[in-house]
Amino acid sequence: MIPISEPSLTDRERQYLLEAFDSGWISSRGEFVERAEALLRNATSARYAAVVSNGTVALHLALLAAGVEAGDEVVMPSLSYVATMNAALYIGARPVLVDVDPDTWCVDPHAVAAAITDRTRAVIAVDLYGNPADYAALRNVTASRGIVLIADAAESIGGAMNGVPTGALADISIFSFFGNKIVTSGEGGAVTTDDPEIDARIRQLRNQGNSVERRYFHDVLGFNYRMTNLAAAILCAQLERLEELTTHRREVLDWYESRLKGVAGVRLQSVAADVVRSPWLMTVCVDDWSGAQRDQAISLLAEEGVETRPSFVPMQDMPYVKTPERISTPISAKIGREGISLPTFPGLTKEQVDHICERLLAAVRGLD
Ligand SMILES: *Cc1c(COP(=O)(O)O)cnc(C)c1O
Fold this sequence. Notes:
By secondary structure, this protein is α/β, with parallel strands linked by helices. Helix content is 39%, strand content 15%.
């Protein structure tokens, strides 16, 4: 079976992990935690970086540091991994889900502008499948209104817009280092920002709201969202290999594009002229596929030894979401029905990509 994703782990990761183990510093203190944060500042050009236990809690902390409270509205695209919305729900804030752009599949800045109210405290843009959202347009909407712009860059480390790396494109950015992301620490995440006060709040909140002056005194209600030194050791090795990891994945995406671009009925995600996409999961849409046809293609490909995934489900479709008004996000729904994510990882060969494309196109023709 060709898996959808596979971490690239080398002797460097093993070496650092053993170093952390042998040092005895296996909890959240230890040299790798600070080293990982320095590597992240370097990779993103953000002034501050704080590592945490996963990307979901990074979003939770980003919203809290932005001052989001119960009852506030947080505007975000309806098409994302569910963690984006859940983070707002943890606080009792109201996620306001808006539609995405049909070409980039990222949140539509016009839809964001139309959704702003007096209660809007933050906007979360999502760099879907590694494609940075239109931060220039989004900043025009948020900056003059005192709304905090948050980048869910969980999938987009190594991307850029106008030469500025992801992680430095919004007021606060978050990353995930889950096993299927471009850079992994097993489980892990980070929050980056240029604002020293936001960074200080993130650090305090991830560490149980600890007072910096008085032991066992907690100034605010905080959390244990720390990253372990063991995870940070793996993360350091991965961040030192960022260039290599993204180069290999870019090559894989280029192979896919050369086979699938221009094929009738197959749509690829568009990348804006000023944007460098980060090479996360190769995802394509097939014109007019029903969700059932797409799911059938996933089964057919699995029988032929190729693991794939459906695109994300619009978040308002989750049964626990109580929406006061009916939300309609037709473009997100369409991508949610027609999208299929293909195996993408550094060790994939050109022959494997050729095989996957051939089987995919056979399924596309067969399911007409
Ligand atoms: C992976 C991901 C997250 C959450 O990250 P975890 O580390 O799994 O908690 C959040 N948002 C998006 C868009 C993601 O892809």
